[in-house]
Amino acid sequence: MPDQPMPPSRFTLPLLGAGAALALAPFTSAAAGLLGGAFLGLTLGNPRARETRAWTHRLLPLAVIGLGAQMNLVAVAKAGLHGLGITALSITLVLSLGLWLARRLKVDPDAGLLIAVGTAICGGSAIAAVAPVIRARSHQVSVALATVFLLNAAALVLFPPIGHAVGLGQDGFGLWAALAIHDTSSVVGAGLAYGPRALEVATTVKLARALWIVPVTLGIGWMEARRRKAAGGPAGTEDALPVKKPWFIAGFLAMAAVVTWVPALRGPGHWVAFAAQRMLVLTLFLIGAGLSRQALKEVGVRPLLQGLLLWIAVCVCGLLLVRLGLLG
Questions:
Q1: What's the pLDDT tens digit per position in 200-240?
Q2: Is the pTM of this model over 0.90?
Q3: SS3 letters for 20-66?
Q4: DSSP state letter for 161
Q5: How far is CA 176 from CA 82, 187, 194, 199, 300, in A?
Q6: Which of 98, 221, 233, 265 has its CA 20 to 30 A from that of 317?
Q7: What is residue 299's predicted lDDT score, i.e. its pLDDT?
Q8: What confidence category does residue 275 fall into, taking pLDDT thresholds of 50, 70 and 90?
Q9: Is the Cα torsion angle 138, 139, 143, 149 positive or negative in sign?
Q10: What span, in angstroms and rounded, lies between the C-alpha atoms of 127 and 121?
């Protein structure tokens, strides 16, 4: 008689707990959290998928609010106002191209939107902000995040040598990195590898770009509400649920304002931001654990192709603009 598989609860539940604990550890990166959860979900399954899904919906907005504690609104606003028009235009163009690619490649609409938003603004943070507003499912969020993290890892390795090869100065590289690398953490890593001035420019410009999470999330929420009202999703389906109000965006701004204009709270603000980062990694682990082979098969490789083509377009156009002196 062939061996029967062990009941999932004997292995998966302890591993879920251990993985969640590791996700909270300072040495666990966001990508490691997501991939660790995905490995667990795809190999052993997740007998508590409903509970982990509920926790992701609770934790994502709280993590976004806490991330506001790392913002200095004065410095970020100065950088943002300097290139306000260019930033608005670039975000609009990237979103438009991303959504066009999603339609052409027949990517799941919500996953395609999340990939476009993550590429246009600030990677995982933007995806985390928009996902609860459109009520994206766990596998859609997982695929979008995995695409962004994979391209982030590539950018961290490729950008510094490319910058040197084409003769970019410190300021030029910082602008290019802030425009074309998804996550702030990878922008910081690439800037640090290139030089101190590149790090300063890249971080400031990227943080200014991150503030666009607020209007973009509000705009997407408004448009999604109109779309669902017009479509009138069938009763009993997720499409019939109303769009979730992005209340946490107000919390994000309030948190940033408090640490900016109350100097005594800047120290505690660093700890709040750190706790929010750990909470985000934990959430990504739970999102990954919600993946199933069937869901992954339904999504396919098209989202990755969408993210790759969109990223290449942003990288090439951004580099040309910097080289021609049209940015900065």
A1: 788 778 877 888 888 898 898 888 777 777 766 543 344 44
A2: no
A3: HHHHCCCCCCHHHHHHHHHHHHHHCCCCCHHHHHHHHHHHHHHHHHH
A4: H
A5: 16, 10, 12, 11, 31
A6: 221
A7: 61
A8: very high
A9: positive
A10: 9
